[in-house]
Every structure is written in structure tokens, then in C-alpha cells.
Model the fold of this input.
Amino acid sequence: MQFTKKLYVTLAGVVVVLAGGYALVSHHYQSAFLPHTEVAGVDISGRSVAEANQVLLKKVNNQKYTLKDQQNSVLTFSGQAAGFSHNFKPLLKKMRQTQNGWTWLSRSFGEHQTTKAEDALILDTNSFNQFASQTVTKLNASRTASKNAQVDLTGTDYQITKEVYGNTISLAKFKKTVAHGINQGTTTINLQKDYDQPTIKSTDQKLQKTVKELTTIANETINYSVDGNTFQVPKSEIRSWLTEQDGTVQLSKTAITNYVIQMKTQYDTYDKPLTFKSTKQGTVTVPAGIYGWSISQADEVAALMSEVPKGKSFSRTAVINGSGIANKTRSVGSTYIEIDKKAQHMWLYQDGKVTIETDIVTAKPPQVTPSGVWSIWKKERNATLKGTNSDGTAYASPVSYWMPIDETGVGIHDSSWQPKYGGDWYKEHGSHGCINTPPATMAKLYDAVSEGIPVVVI
Done:
């Protein structure tokens, strides 16, 4: 009985000692981190906030990081060199407040409590961006870039060129990987998953659809008619209009405009000299005048931009502005007026035959009757022609018949004041530029012609 009492006393003493020891240890952990506490890969168990902060800063400030690509080390750097620094105190204080010192024993046998350093991280964005940009540029200097699959024209066929898998480093991925590694306290950072990868593959359905669309359009038959001239737009020309951007077929307005300009250069008759078989001088070259036509560039570009993408063959007659010289024969046709200043004579040809001819009087030198391919653009009865004489005085000449032929006021009209026509009379008694015509003949000419008839002045 006495032994049992001593045992109890002993056991009680042990309990008191153990309890005291537990309390003493628990008291320590009221201001220190519990066992198995890690931050950024550093064990801070049993340390105070100040001690833990000192240990962590010592590690991160001296920590070196190694970049690896596959199995090769490509760069070693410090966090500070990359623009990273840390302030652990706020994080440590917050962690400490969540720990209960009395649970130190259970924590001793539990799992490690690992905390990342993200909340303690301070990042100088400008320094990090500069570090990342310079590093990636250096790493990519001798690497092969990835390429998307694309549509290429091979000869006359559109085909898909397969994508290329290169090994250049993506700047965006690099930044993410490095920042994550430093946050985790990882000293070896692998860049294997940071390669730029093709975003468009040869199996892409949109790309395959694009090839079919390009092929269909390129095989269109486009027939053109320009003032009786017919031709087909070459397939190679159509292909030169086509472009592809991210799987979308586009037409080059610039290329189509250039083609229309080529058509105008070849077929337009406006503002071009004319080879003309004259009555007395033989074949001559006549300067361009107002007679002729030109393809409407705006209309043709708009039409092609609208029709070509439909992928269907079509025929088109070009829109032309003006009227006149037939392109096929490059002539004024068989009905026209010829005025020969050297011969001081005028002929009216109708269906290839002379129906009216007369001597005339043209401009008195140094004034000129302009040579060129003109046309009668108006017919007017009983007009008064006004202008300025060479001495500066004004004149007003009433005429019975007036047919202007150019844009400056030169025309054909009767001239009752002229006593004679032809020969050298014009040198001293010529007009201000108009074609003076005998009144009786002018009356016949006025009735015989219509507006729009070409007038060739040589």
C-alpha cells in the first residue's frame, strides 16, 4: 500500500514535469514558428519572425538561378539581377498569427507546412522586362523560329506548306516561367515548355477551305469587251490579285487598279495622237484633242472587286467615258470633217465620200487654229462671238451658224466679213483661231452634220 502511494507520487511528479516542459516549449512557440514550417524552400521552424526574415533574405539575396533548356544550362543569374526582391516580414507576421504554440507536438509529427514566397515578392517591372527581353533575344539568336502552316502558290497551284516546329523562346512564356520559378524558390528553371509553337497547322480546316477558295477564283474565266475589242484576262493576272491573310482570301485593290490602268493604256483613245490619212498631205500624225474615250477606272475596279470573289466565270463590257475614235481601226471612221490649215481647205466626208468642200480662213499668225482631233460638241444659230483683239480691244461678231470644236472657244462659223478664202489670205486677214467659212457653204455644212462628228485639224 505504501509502495503504491510512492508510485502515484512519482507519476504525479513526472506528469508535472512533463506538463511543465510542454508548457515551456509551448511558450517558446508562442513567438516562434511551429515545427515543419517552410517558406520559399527554407525551414524556419523554431525561429522568430525577425530571425526567419533574416534567414530568408540571406538566402534569396544570394540565391542563384539556373536556366536549362532540355539538359543544357544556358544561363545562371540572381533574383536581384532579374529585378526581384522580397519583403518577408508582412508574410511572416501573418503566418505567425495563424499558428497556435500549444500544437507544437502534433505538428512535430505532421506534414511540413510549405508557404510560397509570392506574397513577399517585390518585382521591379521595368528591370524584369529588360532582363527578359535581353535574355530571350540572346537565346534566340541562333535558334530556328517556328512557322505557321500557310498557303503558297506553286506554279499554277495553291498548296498548303506544313508548319515548322522551331525552338525559339517565347518572351511571354519566358516571363511566366521565370517569375513562377523564383516565386516557388526553384533554383533550376527549365525552358523546355517555353518554345514558340505554330498556331496554325496544316490540318486546319479554315486553311484547307482557303486553298479551295483560292483555286476556284484563280480558275475563273473573265472575258472582257472594250469598244469591240474582246479578250480574256490571263489566269496568271487573276492569281496576282489574290492574297491570303489568316485563312481569309482577299483581293488586292492595288493590283486590280494596276491592271485596269494597263487596259486604259492599251485601249483608251482619249488624249492620244492619231495616225490619219489626209486628203492632200498623205498620212500624218494628228495631236490629241477632245475627241476620244477612256475606260472608267473607278467603275472597272469596283466591278472586279465585287465579281471576282464570287468564284464564278463572267463576261464584262467595260464602262467608257466620252466617245469617238474606234480602237480597232484607230481612226475617226468614215464620216468626219477634215481641216487642212496648210491648204486652207475643209472637206466633209460622209461614209467615206466627200460631200462638201470649201476654201477657208484660219487664224492670223501669231494666233493659231489648234491642230488636233476635235469634235462638234454644240450647234447654235445666230450667235455672237466675243473676244479680245491682239491690240487689246474687244470684239463682238454676230454669226448665223456656230459649231465649237474644242474647249477654248475655237469653232467653225460663217464669216460674211471675209471677201475671199483660201491661199495666203489668212496671213494678213485671218481669224482669232476659228475656221471662217463662206456663208452659203456654212449653211449646207450646218444642216449636213450632227453633234459629235469628229473634226480633224492638221
User: Anything to note?
Assistant: DSSP finds twelve helices and 28 strands in the chain. The CA atoms of residues 171 and 374 lie 69 Å apart.
